[in-house]
């Protein structure tokens, strides 16, 4: 197997990006290295996402497209891994000729053995393993300044529109020791920002250690200059978490708080376990602890039976909170979920109209929030060189806002103080104050 190269195309969330790093790490242990380009690879994997129809189709059509490469390159192995693999299993082989392996998110350890024993017959491995946490695997990191660290896998919330619990299994949390060890390794290899990942990160629990306690432990690690976490569920955000976020300088003052809908009737149908009033009260509480903090969210429009007044409730919550930014989607039924059994009765044109309305609304609010930072001094972590000009860098504030700074040559991974001089759309513009 030594000398073979693998190339992974990743779709979907940060959890999938982290899994891609895990798969590279597992194969590296068996002498299979990462190919820098698709053309160099002997093994090509598509790490698929099934959270929405669009993502789903993109990943699968890409895998099918890649099978054509086999005509020119004999022995090339093409595989589908991730959430669509777990959902559709062997059906993918029937539908797409040329796919050699289908691997679910709990079966990545098996990959070296499978590749070693490939004999031309396609392989499907999609057992759900409640114990699988990959906590002994060193991810082969693909990011430059932020290190992803998954603290748990799976989800027990069963929001009615969501496929995650069916493809990623039940919640299980890593031991604090294994998380701390991985964070230390990341810091030792130069990462200064840690992003704690979980489908439902704040329902983390390992024996008596819960998420606020784990956050304190990670915050105590020397060299960790910034901690972010995603994605929390509003139901599990409590004052202990907000206290830790407030008191610890290296915990970013940004919380991603998925709303999904502003209508209590729709929230009930979504099985979100909070009402619009409870969500607004939580936002007030967050603002009390972190007045300068940022709140971002997820919004779904066009959920089954969503009437105009339900939709206007969503717009009303957006107006009351004025989120710093939001991921906004129109509802698409996910096979196997509870909502997929509900009549998808909001016409596509109406879903499109509602999506346009919330996107325009959010643009207003993002600009409003960003303009509030003009004149302020912000500490940013340089994450890349500029796209437009040579002497330009891009970085992020503590509140996860993108800042472009012109006329400087700072290093990627460096923290600098900048004065925000302008805001346009989702981008802030800054001037260098000093190098910290
Ligand atoms: S909390 Fe809900 S939306 Fe989030 S992963 Fe779990 S089931 Fe899906």
Quick overview of this protein structure:
With 436 residues, the protein is of the alpha/beta class.
Question: What does the model show?
Answer:
The structure is a single chain. The chain is of the alpha/beta class and 436 residues long. The protein folds into 4 domains: 121 residues, Methylthiotransferase, N-terminal domain (Rossmann fold, 3-Layer(aba) Sandwich); 110 residues, Transcription Regulator spoIIAA (2-Layer Sandwich); 115 residues, Transcription Regulator spoIIAA, CATH 3.30.750; 59 residues, Nucleic acid-binding proteins (OB fold (Dihydrolipoamide Acetyltransferase, E2P), Beta Barrel), CATH 2.40.50. 32% of the residues lie in helices and 24% in strands. It is built from 13 helices and 21 strands. The strands form 6 sheets. It has a 6-stranded parallel beta sheet, sandwiched between helices. β11 and β12 form a beta hairpin. α8 packs parallel to α9 and α12 runs parallel beside α13. The chain is globular, with a radius of gyration of 22 Å. It starts with a strand and ends with a strand. The model has no long low-confidence stretch (mean pLDDT 95). Bound molecules: iron/sulfur cluster. The site of iron/sulfur cluster has 10 residues, from α6.
Q: Topology, pairings included?
A:
Elements: E1 5-10, H1 14-28, E2 33-34, E3 43-48, H2 53-66, E4 77-82, H3 83-88, H4 91-95, E5 101-103, H5 111-116, E6 123-125, E7 146-150, E8 152-153, H6 164-168, E9 172-173, H7 176-188, E10 193-197, E11 205-206, E12 209-210, H8 211-219, E13 226-230, H9 239-247, E14 254-256, H10 264-269, H11 276-289, E15 294-301, H12 308-321, E16 325-330, H13 348-371, E17 377-385, E18 392-396, E19 402-406, E20 415-424, E21 427-435
Parallel strand pairs: 1-2, 1-3, 3-4, 4-5, 5-6, 7-10, 10-13, 14-15, 15-16, 19-21
Antiparallel strand pairs: 8-9, 11-12, 17-18, 17-20, 18-19, 20-21
Helix pairs in contact: 8-9, 12-13
Bound molecules: iron/sulfur cluster (SF4).
Residues 155, 157-159, 162, 164-165, 199-200, 233 line the site of iron/sulfur cluster (SF4).
